[in-house]
Write a structure and sequence with these properties.
heterodimer, A: alpha/beta, nine-stranded parallel β-sheet, 7% strand, B: alpha/beta, Rossmann fold, five-stranded parallel β-sheet, 5 helices
Chain lengths: 538, 134
């Protein structure tokens, strides 16, 4: 929309310019004439106002707290604690070796075991991780990408050993490789074979694990890496387009796999920009599925999304202030109508969350759900001139970026050329410069500073230096107890599928049954598909 | 003859993919008039020490957010010493708790920047603490 002529103010404005944290100019006031499309109705195509007619009256959003540190037993204990305290669903954070396809006893795992999540190398670890968790009742999310096929296979084998029916298992595996190359940057092989494995998993899950979400198309990391809100929206939906195209090319029916795609957005500081972003995402995705891909059912068009408050917005200085930031961001997520939500802990700029900090983060959601009253009415901001105008603007600007990616030949080509990577690095640098220049004030950092003593300190979670040695021993013991002939045959079957193009999931599941580790299966990927190196664009 | 430019290696040890900070620092140092070599992600201590020698840098900046700093930073210092380049300042940044910062200082890391540090401060520190060699 064109900016309206500025009215004469009685005094000087408090800022030279008013914009969102992403730099999008914001008008002084929005009126009916700023809107061009109606907001529609909740639960009806194109779903800007929410994917269900009754929203949180029918079901409160899923409070899904992301957790993982140390050993499988440490994390299992945290899972049980969170479930006892009222979290509805689990979400697993793996450590860097697990995420990058190295076992705890690998040389590349040096110093990293259990430090940024839980260390999982074999199916025995996975059994301990989910010990005592009713897998048919609790839905589980796993944040893992280039080794997603292996970790999902481990989850399925654990379920099988405990007598659970795969058809009843509900959950999500992140498995969004496009955004790895764009932002999160954990990978094994180059983008094209990575896309093939993702597509294998969509195909496998649609058939064998029908309640599972085989990919969670994620804007979260794109935003954390420094993108603007519109870039997060555009790159995420462009990634989604890439997966749908690949699945259709595989011969899958968009109305069959479409409803199993899920999304994951960031909720950053700028309240209305974030609400508008998620509303725009729903409308744009619905239109893409119907207009571009010909989805007939509404179920295939509606965007279910998880959201997480913004880690990068938190500060090490005066860390208690982070509780307030998280509350505001979580409130924006709820007002935007997300299906599940993780609230960050106040200590996340210092370490992985302590139990106390994780509890406050969960309580923040419970206070919003139980005390604030905001969940009583469906899309209470629908029809607000400001929110609807911002929603329209973000949808329009994201469409322009998606059109540019279409012109490049799609997201795979765009990634190979470094387009989204460079756009994000530029936006991150620009934001840092603006912050250094004082254009944006972060309370406690470049405004309202205090010395450390007055600002407060937190007790942080420490991971023992002994953990790594213990894990190495455990993994070596599991490996020694296997039937090496059966294992070698199973790994050879994965290699065969990798080479001949048949679906790679069944032989991975079989290899996991025979004790194959994360690192061993990843090595097959490395040998067949090659290893991707960071282009290190500045 | 003009003064030699300060040449800095910005390196990403460890397996984490958080390169937002490293890239911002690399660009800020470059915009601050220095020569910058950026290693890219997922570097082992060997790769970093080797790059420091090959690129003949005046300082090494390490960015890490994976929690492995207490293992990887000392190893990098050790390898630099083995290669005879123990005279160049090594500094770092990332998610690094206060008590680890003290420990790393004892081991010879000249400075650790934590979240919230401005690029201006970092550029100024490098300019003051890294002698451009002739």
């Amino acid at each position: 929309m064109a900016s309206k002529p500025a009215k004469k103010l009685e005094s000087e404005p408090v800022k030279p310019r008013f914009s969102t944290i992403s730099g999008m100019p914001v008008d002084e006031v929005y009126e009916a004439e700023d809107l061009t499309v109606g907001p529609g109705r909740p639960g009806e195509y194109p779903f800007a106002r929410g994917v269900y007619p009754s929203m949180y009256r029918g079901k409160t959003w899923t409070m899904r707290q992301f957790a993982g540190f140390g050993s499988a037993a440490d994390t299992n204990q945290r899972f049980k604690y969170l479930l006892k305290e009222g979290t509805h669903g689990l979400s697993t954070a793996f450590d860097m070796p697990t995420l990058m396809g190295y076992d705890a006893d690998a040389e590349r795992a040096l110093g990293e075991v259990g430090r940024e999540g839980v260390s999982i190398s074999t199916v025995e670890d996975m059994e301990v991780l989910f010990d005592g968790v009713p897998l048919e009742e609790v839905t589980t999310s796993m944040t893992v990408n280039c080794t997603a096929s292996i970790l999902l296979a481990m989850y399925l084998v654990v379920a099988e050993r405990r007598g659970f029916d795969w058809k009843k298992l509900g959950g999500t595996i992140q498995n969004d490789m496009f955004k790895e190359y764009i932002a999160q940057k954990e990978w094994i092989c180059p983008p094209a074979p990575a896309l093939r494995i993702v597509t294998d998993m969509i195909e496998f899950c649609t058939d064998q694990v029908p309640r599972w979400h085989p990919v969670s198309i994620s804007g979260y990391h794109i935003r954390e890496a420094g993108s603007t809100a519109v870039q997060e929206l555009a790159f995420t939906l462009a990634d989604g387009i890439g997966y749908v195209e690949a699945a259709i090319e595989r011969g899958l029916d968009v109305d069959e796999f479409g409803p199993r795609l899920s999304f994951f957005f960031n909720v950053h500081n700028d309240f209305f920009e974030e609400i508008a972003k998620i509303r725009a995402a729903r409308r744009l995705w619905a239109r893409i599925m119907r207009e571009r891909f010909g989805a007939k059912t509404d179920r295939a068009c509606l965007m279910r999304t998880h959201a997480q408050t913004s880690g990068v917005s938190l500060t090490a200085q005066q860390p208690m202030n982070n509780i307030v930031r998280v509350s505001l961001q979580a409130l924006a997520g709820v007002l935007a109508g997300v299906q599940s939500l993780h609230t960050n802990s106040m200590d996340e700029t210092l370490a992985l969350p302590s139990e106390e900090a994780a509890t406050t983060a969960l309580r923040t959601q419970q206070i919003i759900a139980e005390e604030s009253g905001v969940a009583n009415t469906v899309d209470p901001l629908g029809g607000s001139f400001a929110v609807e105008a911002l929603t329209e603007r973000m949808e329009r600007e994201a469409e322009e970026i998606i059109a540019r990616i279409d012109d490049m030949g799609g997201i795979l080509k765009a990634i190979e050329s470094g387009y989204p990577q460079r756009e994000i690095a530029d936006a991150a640098y620009k934001f840092q410069q603006a912050t250094d220049a004082g254009d944006y004030v972060t309370v406690g950092v470049n405004g309202y500073e205090m010395d450390e003593k007055s600002g407060g300190t937190l007790e942080i979670l420490k991971i023992s230096m002994d953990l790594e040695a213990g894990r190495k021993r455990e993994v070596a013991e599991h490996k020694a107890a296997r039937d090496s002939k059966a294992l070698a045959a199973a790994l050879a079957d994965i290699r065969k599928a990798a080479e001949d193009g048949s679906n790679i999931m069944p032989p991975i599941v079989e290899a996991v049954r025979r004790g194959a580790s994360v690192g061993e299966i990843s090595n097959v990927f490395r040998e067949v598909f090659g290893v991707y190196g960071d282009p290190a664009w500045l | 003859m003009s003064a030699k430019l300060i040449r800095v290696l910005v390196a990403k040890p460890g397996l984490d993919g958080h390169d937002r900070g490293a890239k911002i620092i690399a660009r800020a140092l470059r915009d601050g008039g220095m020569e910058v070599v950026y290693t890219g992600l997922h570097q082992t201590p060997d790769m970093i020490a080797e790059a420091a020698v090959q690129e003949d840098v005046d300082a090494v900046g390490l960015s890490i957010l994976s929690g492995a700093h207490m293992t990887l930073f000392p190893r990098i210092l050790e390898l630099l010493r083995e290669k005879g380049v123990d005279d160049i300042p090594v500094f770092g940044g990332g998610i690094i708790p206060e008590e680890d910062i003290k420990e790393l200082a004892k081991l010879g890391i000249k400075k650790i920047f934590t979240p919230g540090a401005s690029t201006e401060d970092i550029v100024a520190w490098v300019r003051e603490n890294v002698p451009a060699r002739v």
